Each structure stands twice: as structure tokens, then as C-alpha cells.
Amino acid sequence: MHVTRISIALEQRLGDNDFGSERAQVEYSADLLASDDVIDCTTELLQLARGTIFHTLSESRTLAIRRKVNPRPRLCNECKQPLDDDDDYFHEACEEQMLERPKQQDQERRAKYEAEVAEQRAEYQRERELAGVGASDDDDDEKVPL
Ligand SMILES: [Zn+2]
Which pick of 17, 38, 85, 139 has the fewest CB atoms within 10 Å? Predict the structure, then answer.
């Protein structure tokens, strides 16, 4: 089979957030030569149609329409890089990392607290030893006298 002609029709209607809408519609068709690739030509025609619709609606007088035609890129709340269509607010890896953070912070707090307690114990021990009532007395008590 040899396709001799392709036609495409594209329409986009955008609401203006004020009970109205704007619509852009294009219909293109092309006659193909025997040497033309049908898929390539269809893709090219669709790109042309999308470009025309984008251009038409982006020239709208209405801000809401212009914003909808050219939306801000969706960025990850964590790393601020563009999101894929599968992601809602975070990259999967970023979300896991974010959920891990409180655990890590908790471990860091605990480690810091334990280090402070150890430091205070050591300080207390030094003071007792200087005062001559070090814990070494307790250790001596536990030793069996000869
Ligand atoms: Zn991310």
C-alpha cells in the first residue's frame, strides 16, 4: 500500500478561568510522493500544527490563557530540578532521601548527646580525682584485698 495523502486536525481549547475559553484549531494535509516516509511526514505535520496552535494561543490577550499555554516548569521540591511526568512533587530518590533525613538527624542528635554526656562524665571524673575522691576508690573497693 502506498499512502498518497495525509491529513491531520488539531484543536486546543483553554479556559480563561472566567467562564470563557479560547480555542485554536488547525487542519493540514499533504500529498506524498512515493519516496516520502509516511511517519516522518505525519510527525512533521503534527509538529507544524502544534507550533501553530501554541503560537496562536500564546498571543492571547488573556493572562490565564497565556500561562496555560506556556506553564512554568514543574520542579522537584527537594532538588529544584525538572520533574518527569511520573513524579508529582519530588523525584523518587529525593523523596526517599527526604524521608530518611529525620532519622539521620535523630541519630546525629543522639550521637552528639552521648558524646556530651561522655565528656561531662570524664570532666566529673577528673574533678573527683583532683579532689582525691576519684572513682578509682570505688574500683579499689571492688578489688579483693590481699
Ligand atoms: Zn529531586
Answer: 85
Q: Do 82 and 44 contact (CB within 8 A), yes or no?
A: no
Q: What is the pLDDT of residues 90-105, one digit of tens each?
A: 999 999 999 999 999 9
Q: 101 C-alpha vs ligand 1 centroid, how far in Å?
A: 14
Distance 73 CA to ligand 1 centre (A): 13
What is the 82 CA–ligand 1 centroid distance (Å)?
Answer: 8
Q: How far apart are CA 24 and CA 39, in angstroms?
A: 24
Ligand 1 geometric centre to CA of 79 (Å): 4
d(CA 73, CA 121): 55
- 17-26, 76-85, 101-110, 132-141: which range is least confident on average? 132-141
Q: Which three cell numbers stand for residue 73?
A: 516548569
**Predicted confidence band of residue 2 (pLDDT cuts 50, 70, 90):** confident
Q: Is the pLDDT of residue 138 over 60?
A: no
Where do the domains of the chain lie?
5-69, 103-143
